[in-house]
Design a protein that fits this description.
- The protein is mostly beta strands.
- The chain is built from two helices and 18 strands.
- The radius of gyration is 21 Å and the shape is elongated.
Length: 310
């Protein structure tokens, strides 16, 4: 992967400075290669393209996050609609499946509303990167406070606007196959939320106050190699960083409480394999591996997703 990323960066810079002309031989090569490749997308990096007007896209994910010897299975995914050819909207739900003795239930996590506007579009004739501006909104649908003595929380309680940029580019290799690269950069801005009682922020039963979750910054580099028309090898690298979370209020005795968490970050990677049985449907299977980071635990998350274009 270390040798692939510089090649992607160099080819991306070249494509942005060297214009492509309709009808040239290189365009025909790209067109043939694109017709001979099907894609699902890697596990982590999102598409910079938008859906054609009036079309739907569904990609449910099923995963099991394993950390500290405990399993945290759940499901998420992308459910999107082409509002116009250059504007896609959608939703990303989250559900957690409890496996512990006192948490054997299906819980709702925080949902995310999605919006993506495409500002440039890659074609075989005009080989500029596809670029999209992202404006999302995290909804506090998961329970975060007033938790029972042995119950887990699954949300933040905070609305969180999120902005970012997605980039995607195709690279034609000497063997006629395609390498597809993606870059995602995202940052959210959580708002202050009320907190009562036992919560995901570590407060006790008598607590009354507020929390301001730390802002999260995410950078993802993704690459896919079209091995055959149906089979694709995928790989992601993701870096997440969280700013300090501040919790303030009073405990059950009336004493002032102020907690400030430390900043944290980690870097993970996700190898995966895709199989696309048609231009409209495919599946990806892989694992997201996150070694222990700065103030974060290590985790391993096997995942499978099925995509369908409608």
């Amino acid at each position: 992967m270390k040798s692939v990323l510089p090649a992607i960066a160099a080819a991306l810079a070249l494509s942005m400075t060297t214009p492509a002309h309709a009808g040239d031989g290189r365009a025909e090569q790209y067109r043939a290669a694109m017709e001979g490749a099907r894609w699902t997308g890697p596990l982590l990096a999102s598409n910079a393209e938008t859906l054609p007007h009036g079309h739907f896209y569904t990609e449910p994910y099923f995963f099991d996050g394993i950390s500290g010897g405990e399993h945290h299975p759940g499901t998420s995914g992308f459910y999107q609609y082409g509002l116009t050819d250059n504007w896609t909207v959608g939703m990303q739900p989250f559900f957690s499946i409890g496996t512990q003795r006192y948490n054997r239930d299906v819980a709702i996590g925080d949902f995310k509303l999605l919006s993506q506007v495409r500002v440039s579009h890659f074609t075989a004739d005009h080989r500029v990167p596809s670029v999209a501006l992202v404006t999302n909104l995290v909804l506090p649908t998961g329970k975060h406070d007033r938790l029972g003595a042995v119950k887990n929380g699954h949300g933040s309680g905070s609305f969180a606007p999120e902005i970012g940029i997605n980039v995607q580019q195709y690279f034609l290799l000497n063997n006629g196959r395609l390498l597809r690269g993606r870059i995602n950069i995202l940052k959210d801005f959580p708002l202050r939320t009320d907190v009562s009682g036992r919560s995901v922020y570590g407060t006790d039963a008598g607590f009354r106050g507020h929390a301001r979750p730390g802002s999260k910054t995410t950078v993802i580099l993704g690459a896919e190699y079209s091995l055959t028309r149906e089979w694709v090898l995928a790989f992601d690298i993701e870096r997440d960083q969280w700013d300090r979370t501040v919790v303030s209020g009073r405990d059950g005795s009336g004493a002032v409480v102020r907690q400030v968490s430390a900043k944290s970050w980690n870097v993970g990677f996700a190898p995966a394999v895709e199989y696309n049985w048609s231009d409209r449907a495919g599946v990806i299977v892989g694992v997201w591996i996150v070694p222990k980071g700065h103030n974060t635990q290590s985790s391993v998350t096997p995942a499978i997703a099925i995509q369908r274009f409608w």
